[in-house]
Amino acid sequence: MSTSSNRLKDHVLSIINDIENGIPVTQQDIDDGYYDEGQYEAGDTLGAWDYIKDALDIEYTVNGAKEYRGASILVAFGGPNITINTKKHQVEAYWWGESYIEPYHTDAMDLDGTCAELFDC
């Protein structure tokens, strides 16, 4: 596996770790003002809304009745391009003709549920 393939894999596995285990909020995050007053305490798990608010794009998958079936959340662009596909439960990364795709098994932040709520707004 090439160095760029290893980097793609590392990026994907890091994102999967965040999806499956959640992202702990630190006191430093709170002190630096990343979150509104009283929103989180140190040790809380970051919510899906806060995770996807910085997403570059969200593309929805719907059925023929225009019902939500999943979303593709673009979390990195321009090198590499990385998306979280909630319908397929996988993270997909692409860079210069190379790709790495890995499934995730749990969604600790409930990204899919949050995308469904956004779709219904």
Portion in helices? 25-40%
Report low-confidence residues grouped into runs of 5 or more: none
Principal-axis shape: globular
How large is the radius of gyration? 15 Å
Number of helices: 4
Number of strands: 5
**Average pLDDT for all residues:** 92
Give the biggest sheet.
5 strands, antiparallel
Tally of individual domains: 1
User: What is the straight-line distance between the termini?
Assistant: 43 Å
Query: Which strand order does the major sheet show?
Result: 1-2-3-4-5
β-strand percent reads 25-35%
Element string (H = helix, E = strand): HHHEEEEEH
Structural class: alpha+beta
Describe this structure in words.
By secondary structure, the protein is of the alpha+beta class. The chain has one domain (3-120). Helices cover 32% and strands 26% of the residues. It is built from four helices and five strands. The chain has a five-stranded antiparallel sheet with strand order 1-2-3-4-5, with helices on one face. A hairpin with a 4-residue loop joins strand 2 and strand 3 (81-85). The longest helix has 19 residues, at 3-21. The mean pLDDT is 92.
Can you lay out the helices and strands and say which pair or pack?
Blueprint: H1 3-21, H2 27-31, H3 48-52, E1 57-62, E2 68-76, E3 81-85, E4 90-95, E5 98-103, H4 111-120
Antiparallel strand pairs: 1-2, 2-3, 3-4, 4-5
